[in-house]
Amino acid sequence: MSSGRDNVGFANLPNQVFRKSVQRGFEFTLMVVGQSGLGKSTLLNSLFLTDIYTDAEYPTGEHRFPSTTKIQTSTVTIVEGGVQLKLALVDTPGFGCQVDNSNCWQPIVRHIDDQFEEYLNAESQIERVRLPDTRVHCCLYFIPPTGHGLKPLDVECMRQLHTRVNIVPVIAKADTMTPEECDEFKKKVLEDIHANDIQIHDFPDFGDDEEEAQFNQQMKDRVPFAVVGSSSLLSVESRKVRGRQYPWGVAEVENLEHCDFSALRAMVIRTHMQDLKEVTHRKHYENYRYAKLASSSSTSNKGVAGEQNPLSQLEEEKKEHSKKMKMMQSEMETVFEMKVNEKKQKLKDMEADLERRKEAMHGKLTKEAQEVAERQEQLEADTAEFEAQQRKHEQDEALRNASKGKEKGGKGKKPKH
Description:
Blueprint: H1 13-24, E1 26-33, H2 40-48, E2 72-80, E3 83-91, H3 106-124, E4 138-143, H4 152-161, E5 167-171, H5 179-195, H6 210-220, E6 225-226, E7 233-236, E8 239-246, E9 249-252, H7 261-271, H8 273-308, H9 310-412
Parallel strand pairs: 1-3, 1-4, 4-5, 5-6
Antiparallel strand pairs: 2-3, 7-8, 8-9
Helix pairs in contact: 7-8, 8-9
């Protein structure tokens, strides 16, 4: 059908959906998890090109290291090209900053489950009202640039979160490592993730465009993203760039040769934000909903059975209590093993550091001994040369004295007549 008169008009449906979506606006919830001092606030400001966290709001002192992990949610509305985005940022101050970090991930898990519960309750009402979608769609998990792979705390926390939220691993402060060290650290992190069966978000490929597919694959190959955050504008070769100034040069935030910040922003915001929301709804929320409804149904059935047979109910309670005790014992053993491994790793690091210091000191002493030997040889050579010159001078002086004596003796003799 080529003529406009023959068209039915449903080809205009995408335009209608687009218009409705733009009028309604979009919602996205981003969670950041990681220890304090890894540049989470700076990276968020850089990602969305706005001062989400200003200097006045940035916590200092004891507020940055609370006694337990807390959940702080900030909401900001961003407009770009006529499209409105209601962005909710979930921060986790206090995570991993205590002497005993056992179960420090529980407030994070509880917050994610609470958002699922609120959404489920809203869906279960007789008159359903559209509520803001506060479910966590993406979790940027910040990994400190230690160079030794994932810590036991990171492994356990990611294992608790990967069934509830889309995890995107991020290596913080990548400018503290050389490119070779960064690539090697990425390999170690991925090996630890696969070894512990941690499911990070797999960015799918969209479209049939070969060039676009190749670009997406190049961006996916950079996972985990090694990033540098900065809101400072610097002048580099008559260009204004955001980066960090160092004596050796400038680490540009949006330069893929310097860090993966542009790849992270492209994958999370520009190309896969809707995919993150859909995976959250189809996979994580549905898993929670199924488990919740199945648990409610099982509890209801147990209650009915208990009314009919109290002895059977008592036996079920004993089994459940025994199961809980075994789970608690298993968790305690896991935490104990995690602490022991962490202590062992610290001792290995200290031992390696002492060995490096010993080698450095030995090399320094050897070098100083060589310098002393060389100076001694030089001194002996200079002494020998000086003595030789002294002897030669004495010989020359003796010859001059002898010559003068002969001249005087010749003058004193009278001529014979």
